[in-house]
Amino acid sequence: MDNASEKSVEAQVITFQSHADFLKEFPKTGSDSLAGKMLRHYWHPVCLSSDLRDVPYPVRMLGEDLVAYRGLDGVVGLISDRCAHRCASLQYGQIRKDGLECSYHGWTFNTKGKCVRMPLEPEGTPQMNRAKQNWYPVEEWAGIVWTYMGPEKETPPPLPKIDILARTDGEVVVERGDFRNYSYLNFMENFVDMGHIYVLHMLAPGVVPEEVEPYCDKTVDVEWRNMIHRTFETSFGLKCVLVHNTENSDRKFVNTWSTALPSYYRFGGVTAGLPPDFTDDRRESGGILRIIDDEHFEMFRFTLFRPGNFRSTFFARASDTSRGLAEGLTGGGDRKDYDVRKYAAWEGRPPVEDLVIQESQGAIPPRHLELLGTSDVGVVLLRRIWRKSMEAVARGDKPKQVVVDENSVVKVDTFKGFAHPDEIHLGPDNMPSSEDGRGLIRDKKGALVYK
Amino acid sequence: MDNASEKSVEAQVITFQSHADFLKEFPKTGSDSLAGKMLRHYWHPVCLSSDLRDVPYPVRMLGEDLVAYRGLDGVVGLISDRCAHRCASLQYGQIRKDGLECSYHGWTFNTKGKCVRMPLEPEGTPQMNRAKQNWYPVEEWAGIVWTYMGPEKETPPPLPKIDILARTDGEVVVERGDFRNYSYLNFMENFVDMGHIYVLHMLAPGVVPEEVEPYCDKTVDVEWRNMIHRTFETSFGLKCVLVHNTENSDRKFVNTWSTALPSYYRFGGVTAGLPPDFTDDRRESGGILRIIDDEHFEMFRFTLFRPGNFRSTFFARASDTSRGLAEGLTGGGDRKDYDVRKYAAWEGRPPVEDLVIQESQGAIPPRHLELLGTSDVGVVLLRRIWRKSMEAVARGDKPKQVVVDENSVVKVDTFKGFAHPDEIHLGPDNMPSSEDGRGLIRDKKGALVYK
Amino acid sequence: MDNASEKSVEAQVITFQSHADFLKEFPKTGSDSLAGKMLRHYWHPVCLSSDLRDVPYPVRMLGEDLVAYRGLDGVVGLISDRCAHRCASLQYGQIRKDGLECSYHGWTFNTKGKCVRMPLEPEGTPQMNRAKQNWYPVEEWAGIVWTYMGPEKETPPPLPKIDILARTDGEVVVERGDFRNYSYLNFMENFVDMGHIYVLHMLAPGVVPEEVEPYCDKTVDVEWRNMIHRTFETSFGLKCVLVHNTENSDRKFVNTWSTALPSYYRFGGVTAGLPPDFTDDRRESGGILRIIDDEHFEMFRFTLFRPGNFRSTFFARASDTSRGLAEGLTGGGDRKDYDVRKYAAWEGRPPVEDLVIQESQGAIPPRHLELLGTSDVGVVLLRRIWRKSMEAVARGDKPKQVVVDENSVVKVDTFKGFAHPDEIHLGPDNMPSSEDGRGLIRDKKGALVYK
Q1: What integer pLDDT is reported at residue A328 of this predicted model?
Q2: Pick from C343, C346, C357: which is nearest to A104 by CB?
Q3: A361 with B88: CB under 8 angstroms?
């Protein structure tokens, strides 16, 4: 055993007396919690650039009430909502040339939280230097406002660029506004758990509505116990891989889902719908969670539409899965009048199915009551990474980092499609990209469109 | 003093340091409370048999979140709502041939809470025996699903059959869906308190709307201080009796109301309405409370309609007093626009009057602040029975039992009507049945219809 | 240092260990708090006389649930809401000749809380003397029902008559019904803070809408740093004074706002609007807060309209600022569809601006986090008066009294208008009344209407 791992083991013992102790700390987000301190080492999405117009934008982040605004110079500020003077909310402040002015008595704070004006106080008042508004650094990129709320806010680490948002071979659509009233970890643990897609969503490869069956490859073996299911810690976070057998022993079907720290998720490869007039449409999807507090988060969903693309109705459309989801939410069926559950007729739409199950676990699930199985390897790995990162922070170190390429892009493994066994590398490294699509979709003559 | 009562006195001292301590424990329902442990020795209604169709039915009972379902074999299960695997709610589960399947990962539990399938786990996994869902035995009888949540759930005591539901001489109508947001004891204490019907409801015998006065016997003396008001502990629970004088010293008018443990209530005898074209209509009423938790319950109301019967509008109709009650609730009058109370114009409908007063006492009334009077003997007796039962449970004994007849029927005293003084037995035994009606109602010629 | 002040200093040390301790106690209102005990030495408004008709009126006062009613003899009672018998709410009681009767069992209480009838109890029951309902003395004056909830309720101090309500030279309009969900001190501290009117409301003298500018005196210097801003403890409470320079060194413009204990506020002098057809219209305004509990209050607004008066639309009308305020609340602009704040488009209407800012400070602001400036002298003085009064009560003395004149009227300083420097007395005494108006308003020929 080398020194590093000895140190790690010791720290583990010190940090958490028991696994139950870890599980209790795990979902916390506030600055007074170890998990919250860990989360503050990463960049987080705040809002869309287009949300910032001529009025302040109130936003709760990791349990802190903040207000974002775009100054008259176009620069975005993110400061504490409660005015340092008399506790009035700066969300009702006025945007001025040199900062955000509290509407109550005119104290004006710049993007560094420094007070630059006190119109009712004498010139040269010593209060000017005493009045400090908490602030966080902000970057705008890819139509999103990002912030870093960690210990190095004067010189924050560079913003990692999320692969799909950095793409230029199609139209990227970003949508936000789907708010959830439970822990972000209910979502994250759902995402790294590939088994649920075969039960909750019944989305086995090739299992599709009757009208598109002629276009779908049916050669894939969808029996769970015949698949290889592996999960790996990676340079960006973790990934989950499923390898299916097919009718041909030289050909496997691989599905990869990836998670970059702390809350970015990416489905493997192309997730096109399958209409009868299918030609070459395809899209790629992912998203990132804005962590509001222990029991709330907001989803930012990303979709890359490429030329020739369509927006299918078979899978949930982007517009269905964001702002529209919360109202008039239904699955694929009709509500029965004797169904008294909050979500009746919820089955049939994967985003709705995930919402219902995640919410049903409780705002913060009693994880100490769980009984895990072998299919929960993704959940176990995610918790292990979180625990190691929390322990690192407890020691004064940084949590697990997100490695980026020379362009600051986070490249995550999105391999999905048919592959020869020699192509498949079951390990932490990214497999060859399947950006161009290797799939289950055939044209009208029965030929595979993506091989 | 014999040994048994000595033991009882000691236990009492040990169980509650003071009456205030008892009053604090009295309204509790959870499994961690002494009152809740006591309640778990009885059978409780869950839902109507007709509520269980092809979707699970979530139901909170005594503070526990459960889900009821009717399997494809027609057998009803009642198991804990939170899946033993990852805490998802089984109310969103799927009904299968052999149990209820969690929609998240397919773990399937039978009516004994045993896991029978884990589709994402290897054959023969040891988790199969470890995964235990809490469950309770269920019986269906009289259109109602009943459960027993006590210590002998593998071999529960027989279900007591409630008299009115066991009757075959008319149509029994059972309705549920009237939910209350206060302790079930506010209702029970209201029921065993016969004084309130002369004040809150102004329902003295013979005090009726003008249009039916010609059909009503007015010979009964309705001055409270001239009546005999007695309360008795019985083999089924307790009963309250009022004996009125009449113009004739050989004839008394008797009104009996009974309560069987823990939450069954039964009005005395016939409670027919009195329309001008009265012939021989009559009905009998009662109900049982489903105890949801400390601050919530649901009413199941029973009415027996017999041949020739009508459904009066003078007294609240069955349909008014159940599901419909919560919406657009009013008494007999119109709301005045300057009346700012939650329930304006609430007087004039007895079920509404009871609701308003019971709710106004508070979700859990501060009983230690009460000042009881002589008319509160029913309340005092009910509390004494609860306290004895709670103390028995604290000792490891069973609480007061409900004695049934050879057909497992709970026969409660429902004597109501005119009686010769010799017929009246003021004691714990049932008086002669007044099923056939002995009443205040006369025909058009002035002759008593029920004597 | 004399003995009295020594005693005071000692008491201060004993009463609060620190200023933070005082700030924590400061907003409390319950009878178990020092601040609540202090507030109980004053008279408080309960409701309008016209609110009391033929049904009881539930009203929460200083954290106590009470019910007001007008007996059949016209006399108003104010007693505890919870019946001394079985905790039913007396808001559902019946108004009888000799008191308020609980609908449950008929116990009837007179205005002194004495039980006068127990219809279900034997004659001469000892419970009759034991049943005591809490009660408070009531006075009706100026269309308002007032109560005193303090230690001398059998012989309460005389009701101070509020100046504006005692006036006979115009029509007094009293409106209530504007309920707020935050501490009454957020309002009071806003009122004694004259600086905010120059920032939040931008209501500098002479700064008016373009269409009425020709009628407005523009000679006043509205630069805050050139004004004299003083605050004084007075015989009735405190007052805030602003003195502006004008173009003429012999003429100053003075604005005075006054607060009488505990929650009466009075704007200085005439607050007329300024329509183009202005002649001699004027009105005077003020109000008093009904303190519901720590986090709620209701506003009673008073306006005196004098002959020839109009109701302007430039300033908020009386009808806009009371009952109507809570619904469809807006400021002067239109809501922008990207404005996600609770109050969008809130600017432009002073009563709305005050509501938004006061609510934004939090139900109970975290005052220990404040950083005060010189313009906060009013806030500081108000807190000092509250603290002294609380300390007096802690010693067993009375809090600061409200001095009234020979007619029991509270005369507060409302001086507003132009004045020669010799007329201005910067001290606790009232300045000459400006009832008849000395103002900024000119007629069409440019002559000052009020000098």
Answers
A1: 52
A2: C357
A3: yes
